[in-house]
Amino acid sequence: MYTSRGQGGALFGPALPFSRFPLAPEPVPALDSAFLPPPPVVQERAVDPTRMEEVLDMAAVHGFYVSLLEDVLGHAIPVPHEVAAKTRFPRR
Amino acid sequence: MPRWLNLLDLAITPLMVRDALKESTSQDTAEALLRHFVRKRSRTDTDRDKTDFIVTFLYRMVVPAEQQIPAEFVVDHPSEFEEELYVILGEDEATPLPEEHRQLVREFPFIRQEAEDFRHFAELMDSGIMQRVRDIKQRFGPSFYHPRVLATSAASNVFFGQRF
User: Fold this and answer.
1) CA-to-CA distance for B94 and B90, rounded, in angstroms?
2) How many CB atoms lie within 10 A of CB B130?
3) B111-128 per-position pLDDT tens digit
4) Could you tell me the pTM of the whole model?
5) Residue A79: closest C-alpha in chain B
């Protein structure tokens, strides 16, 4: 018969001085959080809705124009990196 | 981004925009194009013509076929399509048109009456009425991008397009 955790018992001899510690240490929240990196702080940036709509419209215009030119020329046209990064939208 | 679009604008003619606006073009794209040009308020002929094609495309898309050519043009009050344009452009209330431009808008019903008398396309072309319409549109200047003018122009374009 197993003795209860932390109390030692006759089967395993006299209780050791550290036997009061549980066999499976319970998590110590303060210790866990001390070694983990702090959670990222997500800050919502206030973007002017009018400006945001303007950017979305420009992306749509870009998609329409690029698609139109590619249809006419029959090949892809080079797009500046900074523009390509901002316009991940389906074309017309 | 605006500079890039201006560069693309140089490479694209109004006729290319007209031909590219087809059934596969979504209404969202057409609305974005219209907002883009209305914000730009360019006085150039090419930008005005592109806007004209876009708003006409939207007119055909939004207005039911049986209502596209009303019995008469009423230009002193906002049409349903003009109200729709306010929604598309996100404007609650437009700046009133200057009086001289209101007078220009009132010319459209007269032009339509004249055009209704023509029986053949050649008559229409010989009359010089199309050039008159172009001149009127040019005289609007930045007021061309006013919803009243855009709606009137689109209705007029659809009338001419269906008549001949």
Assistant:
1) 10
2) 13
3) 998 888 888 888 888 888
4) 0.76
5) B4
